[in-house]
Structure formats: C-alpha cells, structure tokens
Write a structure and sequence with these properties.
alpha+beta, Creatine Amidinohydrolase, six-stranded mixed beta sheet, 16 strands, about 15% strand, globular
Length: about 425
C-alpha cells in the first residue's frame, strides 16, 4: 500500500462497536471484494470492500472476517481468513499479508488460511443461532454485478437454512457515519493532498489548456503525495460543460473567458475527499461570473451553519432551497411570481440548482449513513450548492468537507483551500 500503516486500535474499536450491537449467539461475516475482470487476462485495480476494511484494516482480496462474540472457543471471537501467501505468489503478485502482518494490521490474533474456512465456519455455525449477512443497502447502490459477498450469501442460505438471518447494513451505516479521531485525521490528509493539487493548478491554468491536462496535473500531485489517485472519477468541466452535473469526458479545450468547474478529490488510505472549485481560465472572473459565484458562496456559508447536531437532513435541504431562491431572484434568474406559482414537488429554484446540497463522506465518497435520523457530532458531510445557467455557458458549484461538531459550526477540513473569488484571482495572477 502507498499509505502508512494505520494504528490497529481503530479497527479494534470498530469491531467492539459492531459486536455490542449484535444479537446473542450470532456471528457476522464480512467478505472482501473480487478483483473484477475487464477482458482477456486484464483486471480492474483492486478496491477493498469498505466494510471489511472498516472492521479489520485488511486491504487484500480473498479475505474473510468472522465476528462471533459468544463463541465458546475464545480464539474464535474474531477470526481472519486470508489467502495463503508463498514465495511464488510474492514473485508474481507481490507480498501478501502473513499471519503476523495481519495481526499487526488488524489487532486480530486468530488468523487462518482461506482453505480452512469451510471446516472452521461449519463448526462456528453449529454453535450459532443466527448470522449477520452483509448486503449493499446504499440508497443509490447499483447491484446488477454479483459480488463475492452475494455468492457467499447464496451459499449460506442454502447450507444453513435453519439459522436466523440478520442484516449488518443498518449497524454499519450507523457506525461508519460517525468518525473516530483517526478517521478524521486520514480524511484531513486526503484533503491536504487535494489542496496541493488545487494550488498546483492555480499557476498552470490559462487559455488554451485542455481539460485532460488539468486532470493530469492533479493526478501527478495526488500520486506524489502517497494517494492512489482520485477518490472518484474527476470532473474538469469548462464553460458550458459545467452545466452537465456528471461531466467526466474532460476532453475539451478551455477558452479565454470561460470558468472551469473542478469537482475532484484525492483519496488517502481509502478515505475520500470531495472538493469543488471554480476557476476563471484567464485568471479573472467577469462581473456576471463573480455575481453568480458569490451567490453560490453565500448559500454555502449559510448552509454550513445548519450542519449542527439535531438537524434532520430533509429539513436542511428545504432550508437551503429557500436560501437559493433568494439568490436566484437577486440574479434575475427567477422571479417572486415564479416562486408563488411553483410546483411544491419541483420548486422554481430547481431549474438552476437541481441536486442535493450535502451527502455523507468517508470510506466512500457517497458514504453510508442513516438519512432519517438527526445528524450527530463526528459525522462528515459535503456542502455543495451550485447554480447552472446553460444559456450563459456558466456553471458554478462550491464544495467543502465538514465535520459536525458537538457545539458551534462544523470544522472545515478544506479551510485552507482558496475559496473567495478575489483570493483565487490574486493567486492565479501572482
């Protein structure tokens, strides 16, 4: 791994938090992701399943974690099963975790090789009354592709039909949404790497540069700072491209007078950062561009004040909508009559601001969390209002990553990344 080893106490704490919420005489199983094929003998770069990573720190394929707090054998209260390493594997694929390295990474003392799993798991299930199975219950999940976890669930239900089945997802969503101090530090590291990328661009962007060249500059800066790269597919959208919310082609030339919308973020140790900034190609915003920019910035600053413990996200988004209405009227994009006659299911402001303002952030860019419960201290959210005016070839979105505090405004992990229009202009022209 490119990143420094993480203190295993994080994973020990996370496992305790999970097992405290389990029903008596049950066990829970978490599988790694597959290595996904492309074609011929090519594969996608491996990405570990975030749940087994959260509970063990094991960032390796063909891994299984079993938690069985009521096991009669103390050695089986928490068990890792790993792909057995060898000198041949080390030569062809690189070094895999040894049992000692797995202990140092996870804090789990009992480590078996994967071929032992069927026998030992059968013994554990004979003692257990029920099992927690791990399904992807993210509200925006795409589940067409069968995963290693999916195959395991099918086999368990076939082999052990008399066992009670419980869901691990609601527990994981609650736990993962509230970050430990170590997690906040890792996310801060990801944000600092993103900052380095943005500052690199401030002296690079000029009329005639191509969007993919900007992407390349970011990739260079991220990799040289021990990141695997982008936390999600980067958006480098100049001019009218910024009005396409998920524009990822990044293949157009940036013209004098355009504004570039950058929705980019580095990962670090599998933790995401998520940033949006808008930069003028020639180093200066026009009066109209700056007016729209400052309108979005005003909404962002006011929205951040609402991210406090006890807030319900559905109500938060309604309040942000009202903030955006005021700014769109000032900009002449909608009228008070438009607001009076609006469809409550699709308010007038949605013509120019059609997406949500905040989402959970963590091991996933759109991280898991419980949307219907009040937000709590330790949760991390983005705040990303935007205004998109296709007829003007202008899209402005501004986004930072915020840690909810016990009292007061949230802590901005991206507070050092230039945000004010004048500061951006000064740095681009210095």
């Amino acid at each position: 791994m490119k990143y420094d080893r993480i203190n295993s106490s994080l994973y020990s704490i996370n496992r305790i938090k999970f097992t405290e919420r389990m029903e008596p005489q049950t066990l829970a199983v978490f599988n790694s992701n597959d290595i996904y094929p492309v074609s011929a003998d090519s594969t996608m770069p491996f990405q570990q399943h975030r749940d087994i990573l959260y509970l063990s720190g094991v960032d390796q394929e063909e891994s299984i974690l079993v938690l069985f707090p009521n096991a009669s054998n103390p050695a089986h209260k928490e068990v890792l099963f790993l792909k057995e390493t060898s000198d041949l594997i080390a030569i062809w694929e690189g070094e895999k975790l040894t049992k000692q390295a797995a202990l140092e990474t996870s804090g789990i003392k009992t480590v078996y090789w994967l071929q032992q799993f069927p026998t030992i798991f059968k013994q554990m299930m004979a003692e257990a009354k029920g099992i927690y199975l791990n399904t992807n219950e993210h509200l925006r999940a795409s589940t067409e592709v069968e995963t290693r976890e999916d195959r395991f669930i099918k086999k368990v239900k076939s082999d052990f039909p008399a066992h009670q089945v419980f869901k691990s997802a609601p527990i994981m969503h609650k736990l993962r949404s509230i970050k430990e101090t170590i997690e906040i530090e890792l996310m801060q590291k990801a944000c600092k790497i993103t900052e380095a990328g943005v500052r690199r661009l401030l002296g690079f962007i000029k009329p005639g540069v191509w969007e993919y060249e900007i992407e390349a500059e970011l990739a260079h800066e991220f990799l040289r700072n021990r990141s695997k790269g982008f936390a999600y597919t980067p958006i480098v959208a100049s001019g009218k491209n910024a009005c396409v919310l998920h524009y990822i082609e990044n293949n157009q030339q940036c013209n004098d007078g355009d504004v570039i919308l950058l929705d980019v973020g580095a990962e670090y140790a599998n933790y995401s950062s998520d940033l949006t900034r808008c930069l003028p190609v020639n180093g200066r915003f026009s009066n109209r561009q700056k007016a729209v920019y400052n309108a979005v910035l005003h909404v962002k600053k006011e929205a951040e004040k609402l991210l406090v413990p006890g807030t319900i996200m559905a109500e938060y988004h309604k309040q942000v909508g009202h903030l955006m209405e005021e700014q769109l009227v000032i900009l002449g994009l909608i009228s008070n009559q438009d607001i009076a006659n609006q469809n409550p299911d699709w308010p007038a402001y949605k013509k120019y601001f059609m997406h949500g303002t905040s989402h959970f952030l963590g091991l996933d860019t759109h991280d898991v969390g419980l949307w219907n419960e009040p937000i709590q201290a330790g949760m991390v959210f983005t705040c990303e209002p935007g205004i998109y005016i296709p007829e003007e070839g202008l899209g402005i979105r501004l986004e930072d990553d915020l840690v909810v505090q016990e009292s007061g405004q949230p802590f901005n992990l991206m507070k050092d990344i230039p945000l004010e229009a004048e500061e951006i202009e000064d740095l681009m022209n210095s």
